[in-house]
Amino acid sequence: PLLRLLEAQLQDQRREHEEEVEALKNEVDAMREELEKQQQAFLQSLQLPPEAQVEFGLQQEITRLTNENLDLKELLEKLEKNEKKLKKQLKIYMKKVQDFEASQAAVPAERRRNERNMQVAVQRKEKDFQGMLEYYKEDEPLLIRNLIT
What we know:
Helix content is 88%, strand content 0%. By secondary structure, it is an all-alpha fold. The longest helix has 57 residues, at 50-106. Residues 3-103 form a coiled coil.
């Protein structure tokens, strides 16, 4: 059973690693294509007269900034959507807290005191069961064998 669990974990890690490697390869390919495009554009711009080189450089920068602006706008929309979702969840939780507080106010004070005393007693009982294991020295091999099995 333990060996199968370890094999399954190893296979999961291997699959995750392979997926990560594939994603990185795709990213490298995309970067390589982008670099080739930039190199071609640069070589073309070197063949242009100086005024055209400046204009070409400005066009490239405008294109880059436009793409970056679109990416940032998309990120902003995503964050705004997430903010709305979180605000909605917060309202729901605030309503639940208010309902809970209202229901607690309806419970008589005496009953609440009894509940607190019971909780304290339960916590103390749980603490009584925590700690070291006491055993005789001659029972140690048996204890270890039972723990292993």
